[in-house]
Every structure is written in structure tokens, then in C-alpha cells.
Write a structure and sequence with these properties.
5-stranded mixed beta sheet; 5 strands; Ubiquitin-like (UB roll); single chain
């Protein structure tokens, strides 16, 4: 099972209470399931509005279950940002 780092930004960081944490997951969907289990409540609501980068690449509209994670990779959790 790949070990990845999930990094939280802005409102996601505030809701998680940490800047980053490790997870074991083969897909983005599995990693986000782990995030929801570890941080029920506000972070679950924030995640609905977030976009994600996996190893620097935007996930976009791809199904999270189709986005494979690599061992040592990074998932960035990006809430909407104000401004331009």
C-alpha cells in the first residue's frame, strides 16, 4: 500500500488542525476516505469544495477512485481561494 502525505491549505488546514499527515492509500478516493474518518465534522464539509493536486498535477474532474497514488507521493487539499 503506497504511503503518501496529505497537505492541507487554508480552511482545510484550519479544519484538520494540522498542516500535513501521512496516509496509506492506493487511490485518492481511499486517501480522502481516511481523511474523513480521521477528521469527521468541519473538514468533511470543506472537502466538498476543494480541488486536489496529486504530485503537483491537478485532479480536475477525474473520478477520485481512478487517481492512483505513488509511494512517497503528495496530495494537496486546496479549498477555494478568494482573490485572483
Amino acid at each position: 500500500m503506497p504511503k503518501v502525505t496529505v497537505r492541507y491549505w487554508a480552511a482545510a488546514k484550519a479544519a484538520a488542525g494540522v498542516a500535513e499527515e501521512p496516509y496509506e492509500a492506493a487511490t485518492l478516493a481511499e486517501a480522502l476516505d481516511g481523511v474523513r474518518e480521521r477528521h469527521p465534522g468541519e473538514l468533511e464539509r470543506v472537502l466538498r469544495r476543494c480541488s486536489f493536486l496529486v504530485d503537483g498535477d491537478p485532479v480536475g474532474t477525474r473520478g477520485h477512485e481512478t487517481v492512483r497514488l505513488a509511494d512517497g507521493g503528495t496530495v494537496e487539499v486546496l479549498p477555494p481561494f478568494a482573490g485572483g
